[in-house]
Structure prediction request, 634 residues.
Amino acid sequence: MIAFWLAAGLLAALVVAALARPLLRRGGAEAEGRLAYDLAIYRDQLAEVERGRASGEIGEREAAASRAEIERRILVAADRAEAEGPPVPERSILAVVLALLLPVGALALYGWQGAPRLPAQPLAGRTLPAGEGDVARIQQESINALVRRLEERPDDLESWERLGRTLVRAQRFADAAEAYRHRIGLGAERADLHAAHGEALTMAAGGIVTPAAREAFARAPDDPRAMFFLGEAAMQAGDLDQAIARWTALEGLSPPDAPWRPLLRQRIAEAATRRGVPAPPPAPAGEGPPAGAVPPGGEALLRLSPEERAQAIRGMVDGLEQRLQAAPADRDGWRRLAQALRVLDDPPRLAAALTRAVAAFPEDVELHLDLANAQLEVAGGDDVLPEPFLATIRAAARLAPDHPQILWYLGRAAADAGDPAEARRLWQRLLERLPAGSPARGAVESRLSALPEKKTTAP
Amino acid sequence: MRRLLYIVPALVFGLIAAYLLAGLGLDPKTLPSAMIDKPAPQFALPALGTVAPPLATADLGGEVALVNVFASWCVPCRAEHPLLMRLATEKGVPIFGINQKDKPEDAARFLAQLGNPYRRIGVDANGRASIEWGVYGVPETFVIDRAGRIRYRHVGALGPQDFEPILAMLERLRR
Prediction:
């Protein structure tokens, strides 16, 4: 970041210098130099005339006329030099104004059109050091690998799905639609598969929801993506009322932080404008905190402003926490507290509360897992499994050794500790417990295949 | 006096700019058509493979209908296509297509992908019939009354907001 500002400052200084230099210098040294040069020439000419007169080459009259002419030119040159003169005040002012305006203007433009808030991307910290060509190459390689795999095992559901996803990312929408169609034909249908199929068909038609795409979306009536595109289909067919109705319904079902909300709002507003009606206000259901965050009797909370609501929830959380400290044998109370702390987005406090909840209910697997998740969040992700988290998972494993999440993390812990055999055993057991076609299977399988063959030390 | 001469190009530029600026405010869709209220021109176009029967002047009239000029290479045609589909399938509006300067296989693929709202399609490979209709560019849509006269002309793609007005106009002409 500093390097960027240094470079930008240096460039601005260079530009200002280049612009201001002629303004300050012009009429100064340059003009004086020119005048001196001119005078030298005229002096030479005068000397020449003098020599000619002395040697009798030119007559007295002609010499006098030439001298008068040269002297006249000298006067003109001196006059001109004076007129251009040393830097006039206006020029200096212009230079100063330019020197100020240029960096200030550049800054303003950058603030307006640029991205000053974008975090720096130092080369070392980038997750994707690949250039665009590399991305395309990697995509092509993974497409090739998937196709090879499907030639061997044409009924590999997971690979068909991955092929569809990869082809969409590679912008080969017609092929992606074909892959999804094939995947759906193999059975074990899911709503999100139909939605993905419909989206690929729509993208292949240049954003037009084709009849085939509409059919695909209709088979995923509860999928947000399908709901969005069915609204789009209504809009394209000129049914603005239905488009607004569908999008408003989707908005009402969307969580407050759903990434598609702004787009949805924009489309609703556009449809309303075309219809010539005011856009319906944002649906209230999605605006409030998710159901369950509001303690019983807390409906009045929904009528408060967001700040007031957070304040009120905080007050209730404090009361609930004190009560549970005094009487910890209240499982629902702990759950409510945990939910509220999740809404307040306070992982350390959540972990602390759940630690006490686990102490009160040492046989409750779900509470253990909730605590483990909170501990992960405190640590800021699961790239490195933190020690308190592992302790919680091991405690939970004594209660439910075959829980998928527990098997997954125990396997990861074993792999991290340099015990691939144990990791393989745990993940194999996990695979047996995952339903066919579950998206988690892919993650487990890729981890399994990445395990080293022999026992090695942790990477 | 010589200096004043330098102003002339600036003046000419200013005049042209003002003229063009005024033109920007005009709506090209309201371009008057010399064809309005005239009978549809005489034409007879071959069919698009087996997709739909051919189209000729004699097929127009008797029923209030739309004539839509389209091409698979035209992006706005895609955008208005769902609208035509709905008019044809939900509202039962007869729509006739003129497929302008298109490859037949491309047009057939276009209709296979987006659906075929056309009762009849005339293939206007060289665009001659479109000239008879006074078509500026694709897409363009004409409303034909029961007497076979052109009653309305829409230049450019039909938008979602045009659906209701078109239906209302068809309804009015039917009475």
Remarks:
- Residues 2-110 of chain A form one domain.
- The first helix of chain A runs from residue 2 to 25.
- The CA atoms of residues 301 and 309 of chain A lie 6 Å apart.
